[in-house]
């Protein structure tokens, strides 16, 4: 055995520890920089903006209070879990910790100023809070984007050993491969017994059995052990496995038999030493509430007003190109299977639908893919290519939203012949109004496979929330500007 082979697991373990610490350190640095900049900006704004009264001794007080505010703000965020490694890079808990810590900091500043009779400027305090919270959230957002980009390139990732039955291991490995931004790279599998070949049915290397857990962990140099269904036969075995790994620098993760379930639908309830997981039912009925409908009406109305110049220019360009109709109407399937005319700016030649039905254009997807998309469709007109690239052709669908046929966010509106090929599970997509945008659009649009598009739509239907709608609309702007997956 060479020196490199002996040291490789130790070096890998050190790399794993650095990978766990790096996001937390980066978050502290970013927050310190943001809070310092916001504090200086608030002080400058209080001293220079004409809406405030005379400056007086504000600059001197701000200079004295700056260091305690900056350090205290970051410390309070940390006390609320804002730098916990398990929160960074995924989910909304990270943002919630930042917001809670920021408002607690504001309360502490107010109490200290009152009890200590510190004449801190109210204008400075107002600007500090007004600028601070959005800036911190923006900093975390861009930090998360950078972290995800690094993980997709294989950096700051964790080496994961998955223990469980072959079927469970393959299912989890598929999910982790599909989401490389999580930074969890599966290196192998541990099965309950030695029966079977050198790999799982999904092709993952089998490194041993759960009876040799510690030895395999040390040999593989993994820094995360993920226990899936079938890994252990009882709670006692799970306890022993945790004891065995006590002296090894490795993270232990447990995966319940739940996938594509939002965290806010799961609640853990302790009972006699057990952790009962309470699962809230699917939220398809909530996606039809009045609150979502009001949100759609207000949002669509504002967007139509803002897009009025673009509507006029696009209509003129489409009309002048070939003299054909400006609006293209296509029958789509909406809520509960009801048909409606989906409105778009016409981006193809006038007889495009006839050409498709006649088989003049071939699809580029697999035979079992019901979506009809062509990367270089010859029917698309020159102005159509531009408006499709930036989704301008979909602006008239705001009228569908106002008429109640669509929503701002939801599953992709399918064609009737697509619905005829749906399985019973896929028909669940029709339980909510189709959307102008959705998880399918912000996750790749036409570049997605059929399985991924179905998975994302079903996830949306089961886990709907207004916060998720806002997040999807935010991500849609980035997807449209980059024209990712649009053709």
From TrEMBL:
GO molecular function, one term: phosphotransferase activity, for other substituted phosphate groups
Keyword match Transferase: yes
Topology class, membrane: Multi-pass membrane protein
Domain (Bacterial sugar transferase) ranges: 292-481
Cellular compartment(s): Membrane
Spans traversing the lipid bilayer: 24-49, 61-85, 97-118, 124-143, 294-318
GO cellular component: membrane
InterPro entries: Bact_transf, EPS_sugar_tfrase
A Pfam family assignment: Bac_transf
Entry-linked Gene3D superfamilies: NAD(P)-binding Rossmann-like Domain (3.40.50.720)
Keywords: Membrane, Transferase, Transmembrane, Transmembrane helix
Family classification: Belongs to the bacterial sugar transferase family.
Protein known as: Undecaprenyl-phosphate galactose phosphotransferase WbaP/exopolysaccharide biosynthesis polyprenyl glycosylphosphotransferase
Organism of origin: Phycicoccus duodecadis
